[in-house]
Amino acid sequence: MSSIDIEVERPDVDPAPPNAIARLRAHPKFADAMRASNAGLVSMYQGSHLLNWLMDDRARLLFGYFALYLHFSRDPAVPSSGLTPTRMKSMCVELDVCSPGRAAAMLSLMRFGGYLEMAPATRDLRQRPLVATDKLIALIADRQRVHFSAMAPLFPDGDKLLRAFDQPVFLNGLVAAMARHFHAGFRLVTHAPGLELFGDRNAGILILASLLIAGEPDDTMPPRRPVPISISAMARRFKVSRPHVLKLIREAVADNLIERTGEQGERVLITERLAEGAQNLYAAMYLFVAACGREAMHAGNVEPRRG
To answer: Could you give phi then psi for residue 244, rounded to 5 degrees?
Structure first.
């Protein structure tokens, strides 16, 4: 399979350098932004047992963005361009997202779920691409809008970036910029060592988000006091097994990310290591998507309507 050609502009530039992460974490509204992002992720959750079996959180998230990137890159004059199974498999293998077999299975599931459909017929049906439906476009736009809304108070141009979603061309440019940076080597997890445990497990990111927003209103973000945890409730909510959730919690304890407290371990204390990693992760993510948003506005000549 051939590699996917993604034009990389300034691959040496890190959109989330350590000094910028530290400054953003010190912003007086950073905790509110983190809380809003995590609450939004949990409330938006859509999943199934089969999707959880096929891919972990990180791969499933990236797969959707890559599918949309390839969809937007389609040139109707070039039948082999756009979101073809061959190109998607190549991209997933090249960027270490998943195997070709899992990529093919995910494409089939996304078609079954109404997120993808076959493009209009071409002369060569073997090269007939898939196209993203409004359902997939809305899902990714809504997910990003959660983060852009949460982080708007953190940046001077935050409101302008949020309003850019009013123009459809903005999402195209945003996804393209994200793909360029990812292809150039940017990875959020490098800014939060230790948190790979959650990204590499089914429902791990959502379980982490649930813990981060479980604190009392007067607690910090992440909470410093113990928070309640229900293995059964998390398993039901995120469509995974109780043993799966329990194993993740035990491994998080072993990695010094959380501590079980209470007579029966019914509460969890987030350690300094996890608190530090989560803050770095969200600060890096805000810097990354803000940088990509600015690139999208510039590339698409987007001028948001005034609020």
So the answer is: -65, -50
